[in-house]
Every structure is written in structure tokens, then in C-alpha cells.
Amino acid sequence: MPDLFEKCYAYNRPDPFVASGLYPYFKPIGRMWGPRVTVDGRDMIMIGSNNYLGLTTHPKVIEAGLRATEEYGTSCPGARFLDGVIALHEGLEDSLAAFMGKQAALVFSTGYITNQGVIAPLIARNDTVIVDRLAHASVIEGARLSLGKMRRFKHNDIDSLRNNLEASSDSSGVLVVVDGVYSMEGDLALLPEIAATAKEFGARVMVDDAHGIGVLGETGRGTLEHFGVADDVDLVMGTFSKSFASLGGFIAGSRDVISYIRYHSNALMQATAMPPFLAAAAKAALEVIQTEPEIRASLWDNTKFLLNSIREMGFDTGPTCTPIVPLIIGDDFRTLVLWKRLFDEGLFTNCVLAPAVPEGQQRIRTCLMATHTREDLEKVVEICGRIGRGMELIP
User: Fold this and answer.
1) Residues 255-270: pLDDT tens digits?
2) How many CB atoms lie within 10 A of CB 4?
3) Which CATH superfamily is domain 10-46+293-390 in?
4) Could you tell me the pTM of the whole model?
């Protein structure tokens, strides 16, 4: 019988990048405090974090987490179905439901398993889930874990969505799932058109708004508020690891649907519940989002400055209109070299290669934070411009 581990022994894709000094992943950070990090004893500007509002260092968030730890200890050593429920979980769910304008909400241990834990139990054997081709991997895995059929439509292509809906006419039920903000492109789902098209066919709509909540909308309620389609979207998912300065995820929707998920989701029923510190931090972050809109305004000021500056220099940033600002390079080697030179100059960015993005779309992914100073961003612009011109990536 062949050895199961043979494929492991043969895997060597990272080796040449490690040997050349161009390996960009699994970099250990010694200290992280807002937009500044320490790597190998060097102070760097963090320009790749999803900490959009910078709330990981907000005094109210830190204080809430510490108080919860003193009251409850460090963990909830049990699943929520049995002995893992604390008052903090239910208080957070009530606050999230009210904030998102839905009847109920349910929190999970991570954002990743939220999508798995929602989609898999909802899609039964004769149902179909239709997802945007660029949807997050957790959405795809949730669909694969279900007993139903998965179809994928071209990114933000309403005709492709319609074709898939027509091809699913024999399904018992259909769920359309899209990201609100696409994490590699920085563009938005065409939610009004998607929701209207799904409604024509009687399909339900779910939005993974991990990168939108706290960032978009007049009050930070995300892409649903941005487009004014809160009543046209059945389920909205969010994570706590971005704007909420914590770890975990939630789903919000009608009371009956949330109740069904509560009793049918293995990811909820058999996973250890969110630790008290994280639940309290997420709830405090939600309160800050609601009471300190100037933080979101600062994020957008920073976004406009960097995005306009990078585009004026001649970098291809794709269709982004959010604090996610990609520098699209187009091949592995030049993307890796650019990442390394930026890193050597003190910028911590994200190097994104295929298959995380389509071939020919390899990129450096940068993200803005509300707590970046103008001095930080001017330095980012100067370094990107100097290195980009030196590599003949821009004029």
C-alpha cells in the first residue's frame, strides 16, 4: 500500500523561495501595537492588517477584555450546546442583532467556521448554494460540507448568476452567497442587483460582510447599509477579527432561521465557545463603532490619501473602492521581489500569489487603518514610489 505521507515528503514548493530569501509567509511578529510592529527586532509600519479601525489598542476594548477575564477566567471550556454559554455571549448576540437590524444573531468561535457552520446545515440534499467565484474560502468549504449542490457564478456577473439560478430550478431551495467586500480586490458585491435577481427566482441571499461591517455605511453597518438593502438580504455574516478587534464570527437573520442553525450546526454545537475576553472585547468594539464615528472618518481619510497617491504614481490597484489597496504586479517573481524590497525598507505588506488570486493577478495587498498617521502613509508612498520606479513597475 502506498504511504499516505508520500505527498508530504515530495512537497517542496516553498523551498526555492526560502533559499533565495524571498519567502513572504509565516513571518513571526515580535510586538504588535496598532500600525507599528516589530519583526526580528526591527520597527516596521504594518500596512497589511485587517485591523481597519485600529481598535485592538483602544482603551475601552482592552479594559472590557480584562474585566471579563477577571470575572470569568480565560476560557469557556465547553460547547455552547452544553456548558459553554455565558451571559456575555447572549448580550453580544442581542447587540449584534439590533445593530444589523435583524431579529436574532448567533456567535461562533471563529469567522471561518461561521460560514461553514451556517451554510452546511442550511443546504440539504436537494438544495443548491450559488456562490460568487471570488467568495472567501470559508464560503466554498461551507458549501462543500453541505449535502446539496454548489454552483459558482462569475464575479459580480448578474447574467452568470441568472444562468445559475435558471439551472437550479429543480432544487428544493436555493441560497446565493457573496462577499460584501472582496478581500483581495477591495471591490463591493453588486448587492442591489444580486438581491433583486435572487428574489425573481425565490432564492435566499447571504452576505459575508467580514470586511464591510465597521467600515462601510453611514453608521458602520457595512455593505447592506451602504447600498440600502438590509431588508433584501436574508442573512449577514461578520467576523470579529477585523473591525471588532477580537476573534470569532456571527450570523444575523430572522429568529426562525437563527434558531434552526443553533440546533443543526455542528460548528456551533460541538466547538468550544468564544472565550470571555474575546466576547467582551467584541461587544466593546461594537459600542465604539456606534459612539465614535470619527474613527471611521479617519480610516476613510487615510484610504483616500493612499489610494489616490498610489494610483497617481501609476500602480494598477484594480477596482478597489475600500481600505484594501492592492498593487497588482502580475507574476510571481516580480511580486516576490517587490514584497522583499518593501519589507527591507520597513513596510509589512501581504504578498498574494496564485491560486489565492487568478494567474496574472499576483499582487501586494495593503490595508489602511484609522490609526495610521499621515507621516506613516507619506513614508509608505515614498517607498512604494521609489522601489516601483526602480523596478520599472511604474513610470
Assistant:
1) 999 999 999 999 999 9
2) 7
3) Aspartate Aminotransferase, domain 1 (3.90.1150.10)
4) 0.96
